[in-house]
Specification:
The chain has 240 residues and is of the alpha+beta class. It has three domains: 54 residues, Roll (Structural Genomics Hypothetical 15.5 Kd Protein In mrcA-pckA Intergenic Region, Chain A); 87 residues, Pseudouridine synthase I, catalytic domain, N-terminal subdomain (Alpha-Beta Plaits, 2-Layer Sandwich), CATH 3.30.70; 78 residues, Pseudouridine synthase (2-Layer Sandwich), CATH 3.30.2350. It is built from six helices and 17 strands. Strands 7, 8, 9, 10, 13, 14, 15, 16 and 17 form a nine-stranded mixed beta sheet that branches. It has a four-stranded antiparallel beta sheet with strand order 3-2-5-6. The chain has a two-stranded antiparallel sheet with strand order 1-4. The longest helix has 9 residues. The protein is elongated, with a radius of gyration of 22 Å.
Amino acid sequence: MNIQKTQSDSLSKYLAQAGVASRRKVVDVIKSKVVSVNGVIIEDPGFRVNLNDCVRVSNNIVRAESKVYLLLNKPKNCIATVSDDLGRKSVLDLISTEVKQRVYPVGRLDRNATGLLILTNDGELALKLSHPRFEVEKVYHLLLDKAFTRNDMKKIISGVQLEDGFIKVDEANFFPDRPKKNVMVVLHSGKDHMVPRLFEHLGYGVEKIDRAGYSGLVKVRLKVGEWRHLTNAEVHLIKH
């Protein structure tokens, strides 16, 4: 039987977007000869799949989900994970009554931190936003336990050696109308918990941390706990 290849997604991308497995692991699924398109077993991960094709994995029909892109202003004491063994409140609880597609939070934001978080079911975008090699820009507003000195500000801009490597911020500034315990930093590093670790290394306690900017997006008119769908222009911005 002949299958006509039409211009759409590759089979590996289609399966990953449908939630079968990660983009890397679906290649193994395809090569195990359990994936068929319109009744024919396909072993080529790059095979082009049209959205109208009938794709099955182990005889179960698989459908790619429509893409969802959400921007959420995470409140404090809310975890940015899909599940939690301790039963703590998750960011998914904030959207569950209105968003029926399966989405997941992208990137790290500690439980006690607030601020911008993207939720999506677009695996490729999630990788781009979360993997350190893509160096996505993040803007943080911090409240420290004491006034930050200009000398230490120069240090975090020049760079500090931590136990897992050398790190620095791209920009650091005070707020003109606030005490100097309030600091804004801009960075592209993807190291775990980098911001609080950087300041703690210099002898400061971080009392509050808020992500005010993420990959060019800002929190304009988005109150704590609120979320909205990204516009097409914003999706294009964070993708390119």
